[in-house]
Amino acid sequence: MTQKTYKLGRLSTVLFITFISVCTSLLITSIVFYFCQDMAISKIGMFAAIVTPLVVAPFPSWYLMGLLMKVSALEKEMRLLASLDSLTGLLNRRAFFNDAEVLLHYAVREQISVSVVGLDLDKFKTINDTYGHSAGDLALKHFTAALKGSCRQSDLIGRLGGEEFALFLPNTSVEEAYTLTQRLHKTLSQSSIKVQDTAIQYTVSIGLLSLVPTRADTIETLLQHVDSSLYQAKNSGRNRTVVYGS
Ligand SMILES: Nc1nc2c(ncn2[C@@H]2O[C@H](COP(=O)(O)OP(=O)(O)OP(=O)(O)O)[C@@H](O)[C@H]2O)c(=O)[nH]1
Q: Any transmembrane segments, and where (predicted)?
């Protein structure tokens, strides 16, 4: 919400509340004076009935509206923060599963191909143990940037925990997804992170599954298949992609 629309919304609400206050006050006063029938007093009374709410209503309603708007903006910000991983800014596990489930339902209905990718950094414990936890954090951020550089705007990227990431690629064939993972391997092989003047390189193992989903598929089951391919990638030497069912 821009500052201008925020102020306009606040102003129009205050004007509306003031208008309602004046009308209510006038109505009550009119009813009272209808039974009183004293013209001189009724004129003063009518004047007071209009002026009093005009003076009193805007201030508390302006303050209250500002407070309400701030609370709702904060609520929105908190909801967004609760769905993001604090280190990388990627979707956290819960948000990734929620968003991927929505995209999966859409793919089932439209019968379009999707790809699910599981990624796990190789020998990450060694980076932590050798160069310290902050070097590990740096690698996680570096990897996040590499992922963002390889994915489309419409792809979901999540950090499922530790050094474990996942992608949900809507409308993506196995060839396209495989090309993406090869690009990622290449990016990592050509870059490094710097810790105390030492250039550190790391690699990633990847499991990949592409399919036109059916109603029976869930994100949990698809990620289980992806994990089995990822396990194969780790066991066959790491730094590679294994396609599920190949
Ligand atoms: N720096 C950092 N380390 C983390 C974070 N989350 C988890 N880790 C570490 O990640 C490491 C994961 O180690 P392992 O599960 O043994 O995996 P690995 O060393 O990558 O070995 P392979 O997966 O078999 O290649 C552990 O040492 C965790 O402490 C984090 O947010 N920051």
A: 12-35, 47-69
